[in-house]
Amino acid sequence: MRVLGLDYGTKTVGVAVSDALMITAQPVETITRKSANKLRQTLARIEAIIEEYEVEKIVLGYPKNMNNTIGERAEACEAFKEDLERRTGLPVILWDERMTTVESERVLMAGGVRRENRKAVIDQMAAVLILQGYLDSAK
After folding, report:
1. Homologous superfamily of the 2-33+45-138 domain (CATH)
2. Per-residue model confidence as pLDDT tens digits over 58-71
């Protein structure tokens, strides 16, 4: 069984997938869309990734506010969760993603990734951190 990790943003979705033993998360890609409201192609690409990796569950980063309240981004994430469940038929777990983008930036800087190259992979790294947090908690 594999689990898909997603970092849902206004214009991009970072994608990561677990190994078959559900021990580690690896980056897959960053899906980019032209408009925040245009999700058809994004959902179609996610479905293709699910089929390619034989995914059975999705973990979606849930951007709660630092004071644990639900803001505009979290509400958009809840709507995306419903779209994913309806479209894929798979269970979608919301996973607290507070500070994952900051941590992603830190990991990439420590790895020597140049500033101009970080933007291309930061969403994937955030998806990896979201998924790895879920995998670690499930042990």
Report:
1. YqgF/RNase H-like domain (3.30.420.140)
2. 999 999 877 888 88
